[in-house]
Amino acid sequence: MTVFAHRGASRNAPENSLVAFQTALDQGARAIELDVQMTRDRELVVCHDLTLDRTTDQKRFIKDLTLEEVRAADCGSWFHQDFSGQTVPTLQEVFRLVPPSVLINVEVKNHPCHQGIIEESLLELVAREGRQESVLYSSFDHLVLQRLHRLDPDAPIGALFYANILEPWRYLESQGIAPFSLHWAEEYVSRELVQGAQERGVKVFAYTVNQADRARELAGLGLDGIFSDLPGEAGAWLNQDDPG
């Protein structure tokens, strides 16, 4: 069962920071989840929210800022003073930090102004860094997933859902998306969903699982993996020797 370090080891370090990803690696993580957005000058940076408000000392939309301006923000102090001075990383920096043996789930947090732009830039960066075999693309924006699939039919696509959807694999296929995985809110996961997807060769991953009992319950449904803010502990809950 795969355990994705959700935004890195985000209970131990500021989410989506290099230190959070390094902490996850130190805890033995073999899969990491992160969020990507595009700056005004079309650089790919790692941050969950459309604005810097919640996780930095700045209060502006990322889409309105250059990379230099985003990098001027402190993304560590909000979490704890020990992390003061941490900066919002670029996706390239994460690729340089995380070894190719570790799967990276890149969740695209797309702003409408970058529709049709971010997908091509993302695929180009992944190819340039030689990470095609270790990146999984996901998004709640299924137009993004459709474009990624059209640009690269071999790109593994993970469709995010927060709802009960009947036969989601049929819906995705009808939109020209061949999913590698379904990324499902843990409270909506059912045995029927897992079995139906797996019968069609589609994996199911649940987010965000931070309780031992729930992790074990989901494992009992035959789930393929979970996202957790506590990747080291989650691996222990599931008695995993090899979370990859």
Automatic annotation (TrEMBL):
Under the heading Gene3D superfamilies, the entry gives: Phosphatidylinositol (PI) phosphodiesterase
Q: Which GO terms describe its molecular function?
A: phosphoric diester hydrolase activity
- PROSITE patterns this protein is in? GP_PDE (PS51704), PIPLC_X_DOMAIN (PS50007)
Q: PANTHER family in the record, alphabetically?
A: GLYCEROPHOSPHODIESTER PHOSPHODIESTERASE, CYTOPLASMIC, GLYCEROPHOSPHORYL DIESTER PHOSPHODIESTERASE
Descriptive protein name: GP-PDE domain-containing protein
Q: What is any one GO biological process for this UniProt entry?
A: lipid metabolic process
Give the originating organism: Alkalispirochaeta sphaeroplastigenens
The GP-PDE domain sits at 1-238
